Amino acid sequence: MAFRALTRRRTWFTLLLTIVAATAVLMVEPPEPDPFQVGVAHLPDSYSSVRAERLLRELPSARVRPAIVVVSRADGAALTPADRAALDGRLPTLRRFAAGGQVAAPRFAPDGTVALVAVPLPAADQDKTTERVVALRAALAGKLPAGVRAQVTGAPAFATDLSKMFDGADTTLLLTTLLVVALLLLVTYRSPILWAVPLLVVAVTEQVALHVVRHVLPRLELTPDGATFAITSVLVFGAATDYALLLIARYREELLHEQDRFAAMSTALRQTGPAILASGGTIFVALLSLLLATAEGTRALGVACAIGVVLAVVTALFVLPAAIVLCGRGVFWPFVPRVGGVASVGRVWGRMGDAVARRPRLVAAASVVLLAGLAAGTLGLQVGLSQSEQFRDKPEAVLGAEALARAFPAGATQPVAVLTAPAAAERVVQAAEAVPNVAGAEVAERTATLARVSVVLKPEPGTDAADRAIRDLRTAVAALPDAKAEVGGEIVAGLDILDAYGRDTALILPIILVLVGLVLVVLLRGVLAPVLLVVTVGVSFLASLGASNLLFRHVLDYPALDPGVVLVAFVLMVALGVDYNIFLVTRAKEDAAHLGTRAGMLNALRVTGGVITSAGILLAAVFAVLGVIPVIIAGQIGVIVGIGVLLDTLLVRTVLVPALALILGSRFWWPGREPSAAGRARPAIPADAGER
């Protein structure tokens, strides 16, 4: 791609146009989306839970969502007669929140330690449900005898606690990310001025990207889940800052040869532009592959992140160059590059390249063994979290469910709904009660055309035992003639989502690898190098997943991975991980034209080592910021991607890829030939050039 030469007029025009466009985007209010639901993963009609949900809407009970009030003593003792009388005295208060003003009498556990009151809240969007749950909790707080606690749980309470955890999370995430990026840029550039320019440009890009996403997703009828905007924000910050580091490093290098800073930036753009475009294109293609996902939340994440990456690339190629070049050479103070000066390349990367060059086969073998050892950590990997395991800190809904599970079946908070023909309802009850791990079943509702059988499971919703019970229940009711039974409910939908993620992972992962490989083939005009780069990034992902699994199990005490983590982390890891290989190999190909493959690769490692390592550390730190989000899925994605990026930066790109290139020599570019000299030749930067 040809980039037009920069001029003072053109750069000012670019900045002014950017300011006007960004202001216009931020001033336009996005359309009202569908009622926001945390954790939404809308599925197609091929899933039984979706068909059951449609049938449930035909019943009168569809207009309510039961919240469960769990009353128990803090010391675990049985409720006293005075405690029970106090609970009866609160029933009029509970009726004020119930649809129709009716609340069933309390149910007491056989041992008398726990009482359960179901409060049917009117069905509404998440905001109104949250208001009712909060008000219900406030009405119960401090209204029972000392030592007696009332905890609100059930599906509305879980959704409320999950949504409340995201209140203010966007602001916390933004401020933490800004602080981390600012600190790392300051350390990287050692300049009191330079760090502020890319940070300001990237921060504006991130805000514009999120605003555009809020405009686009509702128009595409895509509903985001709770982590969509957080992941998009982190991705934009990471990718845009990486591109800034690459561009500014090359611009600084060109200033050592060009007196005219506009000409120097034009040359830097011509040299780094293809790599940035290839990087952005790789990430864009990988993210759009998420449109093949079954879950709507995953498709929304793919579109949101793809929009963010496009804006990050546009910023890196047009806005940032204009902002940097207009600041003059003084923006690098106190290390201002002068024509004829020495390049800021440290000895470390030259020595690293020399060490790899001495014994490339041994280095490559050792790297593969290390990656394989880390990948072995995936053995015994568990996928699927119960409802209570999705939170880092237990909210009231989890505490209430745990108290309930100590005296009632754990599944009592969210019964399974079996929709069937009225004439078959009793047979469905009998079949359900014969299923292992079913605590009980009853006909809860019946109309002229439809009956709902409520099935309570013994295990906690979301556990392996509960999932097996649901599958067995489906098999049992499907065998009943003329029942036409559909099994649904929120915990059944969770199982279907788990199955959908498994299907999506098996389908999308190989497609992403093929698409990324094709992008690399076009960029490098070869086959062998792209195949090797894709394989190294894939192995790096397995290593990061294995290392993360060991960390989750033995340090952070996470019982399993969230179902959506593997797919999302893989997409981000492969797309971002291949970036550093693109930055290295495109520079190696450029230098090979006048130095040969061996010397070209070593020189590329030498001159890109500092900037790529800085970019990798920064990107890993930015993804680690996802840990401020108080749900496990965000932290798990951040850890896996962060470890993977560090492996790519410090091992794969620094050691393994150069070793493979040195072993293969000119065959590395097969079926193409070793790049021939073209354009102006530039001598290799000395390995012992000191840092400035």
Automatic annotation (TrEMBL):
<feature type="transmembrane region" description="Helical">
    <location>
        <begin position="639"/>
        <end position="664"/>
    </location>
</feature>
<dbReference type="InterPro" id="IPR004869">
    <property type="entry name" value="MMPL_dom"/>
</dbReference>
<feature type="transmembrane region" description="Helical">
    <location>
        <begin position="229"/>
        <end position="251"/>
    </location>
</feature>
<feature type="transmembrane region" description="Helical">
    <location>
        <begin position="301"/>
        <end position="328"/>
    </location>
</feature>
<feature type="transmembrane region" description="Helical">
    <location>
        <begin position="172"/>
        <end position="189"/>
    </location>
</feature>
<protein>
    <submittedName>
        <fullName>RND superfamily putative drug exporter</fullName>
    </submittedName>
</protein>
<feature type="transmembrane region" description="Helical">
    <location>
        <begin position="362"/>
        <end position="385"/>
    </location>
</feature>
<feature type="transmembrane region" description="Helical">
    <location>
        <begin position="564"/>
        <end position="586"/>
    </location>
</feature>
<feature type="transmembrane region" description="Helical">
    <location>
        <begin position="196"/>
        <end position="217"/>
    </location>
</feature>
<keyword id="KW-0812">Transmembrane</keyword>
<comment type="similarity">
    <text>Belongs to the resistance-nodulation-cell division (RND) (TC 2.A.6) family. MmpL subfamily.</text>
</comment>
<dbReference type="GO" id="GO:0005886">
    <property type="term" value="C:plasma membrane"/>
</dbReference>
<keyword id="KW-1133">Transmembrane helix</keyword>
<feature type="transmembrane region" description="Helical">
    <location>
        <begin position="531"/>
        <end position="552"/>
    </location>
</feature>
<dbReference type="InterPro" id="IPR050545">
    <property type="entry name" value="Mycobact_MmpL"/>
</dbReference>
<feature type="transmembrane region" description="Helical">
    <location>
        <begin position="272"/>
        <end position="295"/>
    </location>
</feature>
<keyword id="KW-0472">Membrane</keyword>
<feature type="transmembrane region" description="Helical">
    <location>
        <begin position="505"/>
        <end position="524"/>
    </location>
</feature>
<feature type="domain" description="SSD">
    <location>
        <begin position="534"/>
        <end position="662"/>
    </location>
</feature>
<feature type="transmembrane region" description="Helical">
    <location>
        <begin position="607"/>
        <end position="633"/>
    </location>
</feature>
<keyword id="KW-1003">Cell membrane</keyword>
<dbReference type="InterPro" id="IPR000731">
    <property type="entry name" value="SSD"/>
</dbReference>
<dbReference type="Pfam" id="PF03176">
    <property type="entry name" value="MMPL"/>
</dbReference>
